[in-house]
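User: Predict the structure for this protein chain, please.
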Amino acid sequence: MRRTSLQTEIEKSSSPIHQSFANGIKGYIFQLKNDTLNSKKHLSIAYDLINTVPDSKEKSLTTSYLLNYDGLSEWKKNNLT
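Assistant: Here is the predicted structure, written as structure tokens:
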């Protein structure tokens, strides 16, 4: 996977919200490469991380991004049932 400087910086963050977002993106990118195993792994990590964060507007927004990445991953697998 080619890394951009922003992706590298967000992965270095100690914030669970940033880590969750980075893993969500990774999950979608892996699915674009038809690597479903790694896609599910990173999306699962993303959900686990976001669930450790107290309720806030930032958590809600990040959760919505994760749900979108998850939905796009399912769409790429033609799994829309």
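The longest helix spans residues 57-76.
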